[in-house]
Write a structure and sequence with these properties.
alpha/beta, about 25% helix, seven-stranded mixed beta sheet, 19 helices, Ubiquitin-like (UB roll), single chain, Rossmann fold, Dimethylsulfoxide Reductase, domain 2
């Protein structure tokens, strides 16, 4: 530790720390533009200049290491004069765009010009102008505003793993762009907007929409993938205008995936805002009373074993539990939340969780990925893997389709279960795993959503045990889910009870009525024609077209809900705006339906429902926490009757941009799908 004095305050900081970090440890604010805590040091904006005793000139604190006994001054006459001069240089070519700039009110340059700038500039020559660059349908560029801090270049290269941004030219002719102008090929491009300290990179869908002080800000959780990124939903009136990430070091750090960030326009398209009932083969609008009456009429006299329910991938835990209680009141145990048919063993929770934890990636030193593409299934989690790999402490191998671009170097070990058998025998990459102190295995959900899924799950667990990934201090077996509602439904027990049928059995026939709670993840054409279908959801997506009664529910920003991410962390989403029209929160609909069906449910309020949920499974009471630890019982899941096949693994996400009901309704995501899924790369001229 080095002892450093900052403005008369003596502190101790680790050897190798920078002067800027020492100043912040002493509680001193240091202005900066190029420096970012999660990026490499560039030292090119010079705004962070401070005075160091005996130094001949001000030093850039972000790039200057501390030394024992150093004395630093952050507010001397030399420092104030240096910062004023730096700000004057930065503003020489910066346009007076503040009244029309989307960054206005949230701009670092505005704030620091006010706090550290002088009274005016002495530069009278003509300002330079720079041609705007094309970076795709999500990021809007106004490059004349660029102050060349290079944050965007470093983020694209170091965090996103797509070195497509760079600088051309020198001095005043220097410009930042994609060399050949094309859409940025990353699922994390929206984070460029957050880290840009000026208005050079802004949100294209949000352009000229509102000012930040007009917005109502609500903390919530992103459920469009299973990471459970902490987000802030900004609304004005009845509309979501933008979604931004919040910092949570254990989950998403401060990043967010593009689908969760930009698909919010899908919340106002293809919405179900009133009940519908099918009369003589055609759907017509109805009142809530008519819809419940139609359901009660068709459910009357039905045998419990001929009634079933399916929960979707974006459903909050409260709604899944409420529907489970309703089905129990009807006497039915035909429940399933695994629309993809994943062979999950739910006898133990660690059989279906990301047990190492997302933050545990920072400790792993060897990683095997089986049947998964984390880049598209969980982009923020993939960025964390890349960060660990870039540090030189992680070796990665994967089993799955050839040619995956994971943004980091990974050894391809095979395309199917045969590779697992070879690894089990101790061949090849198995030696790397055995030699690691904390090996990690990530099993994709698609790898167990097949006929031999149970055998794949058992083989992956056995491999984790064989390579030393299951110890009392480390749990290296991880299952990566796809959406934010999948683990919560499993924890809520939305699974077949004794003698109950799973989804495949329900679709095979013998069901008189089927209740679909936001279940759009399977082909509704598989439902037998004679089955009465109740669809409860927020979008007129796949399953709504097959419904006999439609009950309009609320999307995730429109209700209070608990969601459990892939590592088993329960988090709360908050109500940011009310659902449209006559739509209601899902648990309220289920409670009202229970009254109509003569099955009164034992809760009248959300608090009462949550109390029953916590009583059923205490993990829901650990909000913002998770059960962590090693593996004390290495007994594996049951392999099932179907042995491992020779069929290659396939990936579950065929179109990242339209993987759920909300993004399928989004025009922004449709444009992204058109651009990124076309085999021909889209250039600016197109």
């Amino acid at each position: 530790m080095a002892k450093v004095t900052v403005d008369g305050i003596e502190i101790e900081v680790p050897n190798g720390a920078t002067v800027l970090q020492a100043c912040e440890a002493a509680g001193k604010e240091i202005p900066r533009f190029c420096y970012h805590e999660r990026l490499s040091v560039a030292g090119n904006c010079r705004m962070c200049l401070v005075e160091v005793e005996k130094a001949p000139k001000p030093v850039a604190s972000c790039a200057y290491p501390v030394a024992d006994g150093m004395k630093v001054f952050t507010d001397s006459a030399m420092v104030r004069n240096a910062r004023r001069n730096v700000m004057e240089f930065l503003l020489i070519n910066h346009p007076l765009d503040c009244p029309i700039c989307d960054q206005g009110g949230e701009c670092d340059l505005q704030d620091q010009a006010t706090a550290y700038g002088g009274q005016g500039g002495r530069y009278r020559e003509q300002k330079r102008a720079v041609k705007d660059k094309y970076m795709g349908p999500l990021v809007k560029t106004i490059m004349t505003r660029c102050i060349q801090c290079t944050r965007c270049i470093r983020f694209a290269t170091e965090v996103a793993g797509v070195p497509e941004l760079g600088a051309t030219g020198r001095g005043e002719d220097m410009q930042i762009g994609t060399y050949v102008e094309k859409a940025l090929s990353t699922e994390l491009s929206g984070n460029l907007i957050d880290i840009c300290p000026v208005g050079a990179l802004t949100s294209r869908p949000y352009a000229f929409v509102s000012r930040p002080w007009e917005l109502r800000k609500t903390d919530s959780i992103d459920v469009l993938d299973a990471v459970g990124a902490n987000i802030r939903i900004d609304t004005r009136g009845p509309e979501v205008l933008r979604i931004l990430p919040r910092t949570n070091e254990d989950v998403n750090e401060e990043w967010m995936a593009d689908r969760g960030r930009f698909s919010f326009d899908g919340l106002k398209r293809k919405r179900l805002d009133r009940p519908w009932i099918r009369v003589e083969g055609k759907l017509r609008p109805a009142s809530w009373e008519e819809a419940f009456a139609a359901i009660a009429d068709r459910f009357q006299g039905l045998k419990p074993e001929r009634v079933g329910a399916v929960a979707g991938d974006l459903v909050d835990a409260e709604s899944a539990f409420a529907l489970r209680e309703l089905m129990a009141g009807l006497g039915s145990s035909n429940l399933d939340c695994r629309q993809d048919g994943a062979a999950l063993d739910t006898s133990r929770r660690d059989f279906y969780l990301f047990n190492s934890g997302i933050a545990g990636i920072d400790e792993a030193d060897a990683l095997l990925i089986i049947g998964s593409n984390p880049r598209q299934e969980a982009p923020v989690l993939n960025a964390r893997i890349r960060k660990r790999w870039a540090s030189g402490a992680l070796k990665v191998g994967y089993v799955g389709p050839k040619g995956l671009n994971l943004t980091y170097k990974a050894q391809h070990l095979g395309e199917g279960p045969a590779a697992l058998a070879a690894l089990q025998a101790g061949e090849g990459f198995a030696e790397v795993l055995k030699g690691a102190s904390k090996p990690m295995i990530i099993l994709g959900r698609a790898a167990i959503a097949r006929a031999d899924g149970a055998a794949v799950l058992a083989a992956a667990w056995a491999l984790a045990d064989a390579v030393g990934a299951l110890t009392p201090d480390w749990h290296g077996f991880n299952l990566l889910h796809l959406f934010g509602g999948q683990v919560g439904a499993l924890d809520a027990g939305f699974l077949p009870g004794p003698g109950g049928k799973d989804l495949s059995a329900m679709l095979s026939g013998g069901m008189d009525a089927l209740w679909l709670l936001g279940a759009d993840g399977f082909d509704p054409a598989l439902i037998p024609a004679e089955t009465f279908v109740v669809y409860q959801g927020h979008h007129g997506d796949r399953a709504a077209s097959r419904a006999d009664v439609i009950l309009p529910g609320a999307a995730y920003p429109e209700k209070e809900g608990t969601y459990v991410n892939t590592e088993g962390r329960a988090q709360r989403g908050r109500l940011a705006l009310h659902p449209p029209g006559e739509a209601r929160e899902d648990w309220r609909i289920i409670r009202a339906a229970g009254a109509a069906l003569g099955v009164p449910l034992a809760f009248d309020t959300l608090d009462a429902l949550r109390a029953r949920l916590v009583a059923a499974n205490p993990v829901f009471g650990m909000v913002d926490g998770r059960v962590a630890g090693g593996c004390l019982d290495t007994t594996g899941p049951v392999a099932g009757p179907t042995p491992l096949s020779h069929t290659d693994f396939t990936l579950p996400v065929t179109d990242y941009w339209q993987a759920d009901a909300i993004s399928r309704a989004s025009e922004t995501m449709a444009e992204c799908s058109r651009i990124y899924n076309d085999a021909t790369p889209k250039l600016a001229a197109e």
